[in-house]
Design brief:
Layout lengths: L3 H11 L5 H5 L10 H12 L9 H15 L2 H7 L4 H9 L4
Helix pairs in contact: 3-4
């Protein structure tokens, strides 16, 4: 059974329309070099081996994707607060 803090983290990560910052458990002012700390904290809460909830695997992947984007300065600037779905559509769209 998942602990209350794990369930809260899962709900934040998997919330419809959650920003990448919400998935990481931080706000948009977080320093680039502090993202690793937030990644570690969030991964400990949603890791499938530690959190025995069927949603943990999906949440773990979403946290990793959020970290990948936010830790890349170019992508973080380009993302600028849009939802992950919008960013994915923009990155895969053909150039005009």
């Amino acid at each position: 059974m998942a602990r209350p803090e794990q369930l809260a983290a899962l709900d934040e990560v998997l919330a419809p329309g959650a920003t990448l910052y919400a998935r990481m458990g931080c706000d948009c002012t977080v320093a680039q070099d502090a993202l690793g700390k937030y990644l570690k904290m969030r991964q400990l809460r949603v890791h499938p081996d530690k959190c025995h909830d069927p949603r943990a695997s999906e949440a773990f992947i979403l946290v990793r994707e959020a970290h990948t984007i936010l830790s890349d300065r170019r992508l973080r600037k380009r993302w600028g607060g849009m939802s992950l779905d919008c960013l994915a559509a923009e990155l895969t769209a053909p150039c005009r």
